[in-house]
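Appendix B, example 12.
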Amino acid sequence: MKPLAIVTGVGPGTGAAIVRRFHDGGFQVAMLARSADRLVALANELPDAFAVPCDVADAGALQVALDDIETRAGTPKVVVHNAVGGAFGSFLEIEPEVLARNFQVNVMALMHLARWAAPCMESGGGGALIVTGNTSALRGRARFAGFAPTKAAQRILAESIARTMGPRGVHVAYLVIDAAIDLEWQRANNPDKPDDYFCRPADIADEVWHLAHQPRSAWSFLAEVRPYAENW
């Protein structure tokens, strides 16, 4: 049986690219996202990928989805938490409920995923939990008040999980994507930028694959990717 990868937040950009990379690398892939239509369309293209529609902010629904995945495909070798809740505005503009919702997606969903997956991976001889983040995990700009606190908490939670599970054979890594990702809306917002201003989802997916397959003697925790011209 092919090894199983689980990917949350499978949208048209990074999430779909990660699914394709692991599918092409010989994995069966369980895809989680709220949009069932998008998942089904992608599953129709990829014979070893299957759709699991789910709002990861709903802990009960997430557990049902994970139980379904285990019944259908067994336990995972790789889990990629790519789902993200975001909002732009200062702390005076963002409603507190928005921050709470984003915390559920970015932090609590990771907590639930890790508590389910990490023991399975340990029992199965090892595995990898990769979390995709961004620059907000490292700094809080004024208009990121509804978003950055949750990404910073996500990074710290991932580090805590890594310190617990690393000695047990489960690799946990946090990938900071410091970039405008090559999506249609980013192109529309930056019409004068050259192609290599944007970070290609397939290139991000390659880095996720690399992190998930690092040798045990040289595991990374915090990794970063950015286009060559990004101001950082």
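The chain has one domain: 4-225. The chain is about 45% helix and 20% strand.
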